[in-house]
Design a protein that fits this description.
This protein has 377 residues and is mostly beta strands. The chain has strands at 33-38, 42-47, 53-58, 63-68, 74-79, 83-88, 93-99, 105-109, 121-122, 128-138, 143-145, 149-154, 159-165, 179-182, 188-192, 196-200, 206-210, 224-225, 237-245, 252-260, 266-273, 277-282, 288-295, 302-309, 314-321, 328-331, 337-341, 346-351, 357-362, 372-373. The protein is globular and about 60 Å long.
């Protein structure tokens, strides 16, 4: 297994019939709802319990990158046309929409980790969103590609208000598949790469470097932790899997790490040997972990569900499922369902207790974002 940690992925559910909510009509609550963007310029509202589509929110373009607002009541998203939009989840309406391009300067988000966009980091105060962009400037007789910059998007003024050059040594940005988090006071940027590097958001100068671990022998890989968007994480906390190398027998292993953005304290919980894992997600109560394991390639591809007992540090259940060429998976907010999606226009529900398929859903349009879920109650 590659020593770089597997990213968490979201959960989703889709169905045939669409019930469009009347503009301005407010649902009773947001419990048990999920959201996913589609190729036909919509954000679908999904019912976790039965997998039905219970609403759709028209957008100005094809949604590509999404992130929950700091208060978890709105979704910020960027379309493929570089339009920044904010959707209010209660009213199911777009409450803000503005372009990130001024016509002459055309920004694009930096590719990271094989995906189109590097992602968004939300200011805990709720006013700003941060990301990495590379700008192409249209001159009279040519196009000019500027170096990547770290940008600050003002949600109130509806524009990019600051473009900060990367520090020395980061000419191409923060690195392959780096992920971001903002400190609870909104002053520091945490960049999760091989180490966790801390920058002052005022001018992006480095203020700290947290070395997660050092290799125990030449050629070994260090710990690697990524910042996920798990809705069940406590405010100011980051929980995700990490990979490391056993100093005794030199075998890769995986574990669970919790990072406190306020105190910079990291706690590690070993899980077991590293395997070819496609995604890892925790149950809302943090007692169980779920991963998809993939063996071989092509016609010999084999896929298994693995259930991890977090406290006991071991796999307690395994179950085969039909192999797919390309897919993601996630878990419902109540922890009762695992969902496999992303390889075409189908979503399959699996019961977390039996690991058996309970429902297969078909959608006419491809999904273009991860699923957005709220915290379980």
């Amino acid at each position: 297994m590659n020593s770089r940690v597997t990213r968490f992925v979201g959960v989703i559910a889709l169905a045939f019939a669409v019930s469009v909510i009347v503009p301005g009509q407010k649902p009773a609550n947001l419990k048990g709802l999920m959201y996913v963007g589609t190729l036909d310029k919509k954000l679908l509202v999904l019912n976790e319990t039965n997998g039905d589509i219970v609403g759709e929110i028209p957008l100005s373009g094809i949604p590509r990158t999404t992130v929950l607002s700091a208060d978890k009541t709105k979704v910020h998203l960027v379309t493929t046309q570089l339009q920044f939009e904010t959707v209010d989840l209660a009213t199911r309406q777009v409450i803000s929409s503005f372009p990130l391009s001024d016509g002459k300067s055309i920004p694009r988000m930096i590719r990271a980790g094989g995906r189109n966009f590097s992602g968004l980091a939300v200011d805990p105060g709720g006013r700003y969103v941060y990301t990495t962009m590379k700008v192409t400037v249209k001159e009279i007789d040519q196009y000019r590609n500027d170096p990547p910059t770290f940008v600050k998007i003002d949600l109130q003024d509806k524009k990019i208000v600051q473009s900060i050059p990367f520090p020395k040594g980061y000419d191409d940005g923060f690195g392959f598949a780096a992920s971001y988090k903002i400190s609870p006071d909104g002053k520091l940027l945490y960049v999760f790469d091989d180490d966790v590097v801390v920058f002052d958001l005022s001018d992006l100068h480095q203020v700290d470097r947290i070395e997660l671990a050092k290799p125990e022998f030449p050629g070994a890989s260090p710990y690697r932790l990524a910042a996920s968007d798990d809705p069940n994480d406590a405010p100011g906390m980051v929980t995700n899997v990490f990979t490391s190398v056993d100093p005794a027998v030199h075998k890769e292993s995986i574990g669970l790490a919790t990072f406190n953005l306020a105190t910079k304290k990291v706690e590690y919980t070993p899980l077991g040997p590293a395997f070819p894992m496609v995604g890892f997600t925790l149950s809302p109560d943090r007692k169980f972990g779920y991963s998809l394991m993939v063996y071989s390639t092509g016609a010999n591809r084999v896929t298994e569900w693995w259930v991890w007992d977090i406290a006991a540090h071991k796999v307690i259940k395994r179950e085969f499922l039909p192999a797919r060429v390309n897919f993601r998976f996630g878990i419902s907010s109540d922890g009762s369902k695992l969902l496999v999606y992303g390889g075409g226009s189908t979503i399959e529900f699996y019961d977390t207790k039996t690991l058996k398929s309970t429902k297969l859903l078909y959608v006419n349009k491809d999904m273009t974002t991860n699923l957005i879920t709220l915290a379980g109650s």
